[in-house]
């Protein structure tokens, strides 16, 4: 191993330890079992070497927000065993087949049409991806996600799907550097889940809540997150993406 690879492994292992400690403390405050929260490391913009370092430090779940970048990194790390890949970004329907074949989780389902397309694609690929419905809680038109009022329809359509496994809800609240500003949004996602179950939506489709990122996952865990998506706190600061690319 080269010196710089060793340095990278050390830095990522240290970051991961810190994240796991924060996670454990948040679970303790909330009286929750740390084993009930899945930590997904978001490796977008970082090369495969970072994925390897995180895997060497024991991280098993990795996420990307663009299909093409995800497919390349999955191919570059195909020799690693036991990695579960998540797609956490918007999915165009013309990439549904490739995503259904390659991703274990797709956290960005936001319409009945995309759900059905993924189910057909998964069946054709003999894949059984887990899906989350992304909810646009704040009505931010700049972001993707289904309006809260449309979630029930998607869950009802899920009961007719044979290949995909719809597991719950995902949200990306309006950004604030103060984690407490995110708390009401996390609470709102949990309350939406509870209301849907009370109204008769299938509970098996509402087991997971994916919410919380590097600076606010502690608060998300206090509010019931079962999946947290952590990039910067594990991999470091991302360089800005080139402005002109439209690829995803
Ligand atoms: C990039 C990204 C994250 C991770 O963000 P950090 O602030 O770096 O932890 C989480 N969720 C989604 C959907 C993302 O695109």
Explain this structure:
With 248 residues, this protein is an alpha/beta fold. The protein has one domain: TIM Barrel (Alpha-Beta Barrel). The chain has 9 helices and 9 strands. It has helices spanning 3-30, 48-56, 67-76, 96-102, 112-125, 151-158, 179-198, 217-222, 232-235; strands at 38-42, 61-64, 84-87, 105-109, 130-136, 146-147, 165-171, 208-210, 227-230. Strands 1, 2, 3, 4, 5, 6, 7, 8 and 9 form a 9-stranded parallel β-sheet that branches. Helix 1 packs across helix 2 and helix 4 crosses helix 5 (112-125). The model has no long low-confidence stretch (mean pLDDT 95). Pyridoxal-5'-phosphate binds at residues 42, 44, 65, 88-89, 172, 213-214, 229-233.
Summarize this entry quickly:
This protein has helices at residues 3-30, 48-56, 67-76, 96-102, 112-125, 151-158, 179-198, 217-222, 232-235; strands at 38-42, 61-64, 84-87, 105-109, 130-136, 146-147, 165-171, 208-210, 227-230.
Query: How do the helices and strands follow one another from N- to C-terminus?
Result: HEHEHEHEHEEHEHEHEH
Shape: globular
What is the CATH C-level name?
Answer: Alpha Beta
> Spans with pLDDT under 50 lasting ≥5 residues?
none
- The helix tally amounts to 9
Q: Report the sheet-strand fraction.
A: 15-25%
CATH fold assignment? TIM Barrel
Q: Report the C-alpha radius of gyration, rounded.
A: 18 Å
Into which percent range does the helicity of residues fall?
A: 40-55%
Bound small molecules, deduplicated: pyridoxal-5'-phosphate
Mean pLDDT across all amino acids:
95
Number of strands: 9
Q: Distance N terminus to C terminus?
A: 33 Å
What class, by secondary structure content?
Answer: alpha/beta
Judging by the overall fold, what is the CATH architecture?
A: Alpha-Beta Barrel
- Give me the CATH superfamily: Alanine racemase
- Domain count: the total is 1
Sketch the major β-sheet: 9 strands, parallel
């Amino acid at each position: 191993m080269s010196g710089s690879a060793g340095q990278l492994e050390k830095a990522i292992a240290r970051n991961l330890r810190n994240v796991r400690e924060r996670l454990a403390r948040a679970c303790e405050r909330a009286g929750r079992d740390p084993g009930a929260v899945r930590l997904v490391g978001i490796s977008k913009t970082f090369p495969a070497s970072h994925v390897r370092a995180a895997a060497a430090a024991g991280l098993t779940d990795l996420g990307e927000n663009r299909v093409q970048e995800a497919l390349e990194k999955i191919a570059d790390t195909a020799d690693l065993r036991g990695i579960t890949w998540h797609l956490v970004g918007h999915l165009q329907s013309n990439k549904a087949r490739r995503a259904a074949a390659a991703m274990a989780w797709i956290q960005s389902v936001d319409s009945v049409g995309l759900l059905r397309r993924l189910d057909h694609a998964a069946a054709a690929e003999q894949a059984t991806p887990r899906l989350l419905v992304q909810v646009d809680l704040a009505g931010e038109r700049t972001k993707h996600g289904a309006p809260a009022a449309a979630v029930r329809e998607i869950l009802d359509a899920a009961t007719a799907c044979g290949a995909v496994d719809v597991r719950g809800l995902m949200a990306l609240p309006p950004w604030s550097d103060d984690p407490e500003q995110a708390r009401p949004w996390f609470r709102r996602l949990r309350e939406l889940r509870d209301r849907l179950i009370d109204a008769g939506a299938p509970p098996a489709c509402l087991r997971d809540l994916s919410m919380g990122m590097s600076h606010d996952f502690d608060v998300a865990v206090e509010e019931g997150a079962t999946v947290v998506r952590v990039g910067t706190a594990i991999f470091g600061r991302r360089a800005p993406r080139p402005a002109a690319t439209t690829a995803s």
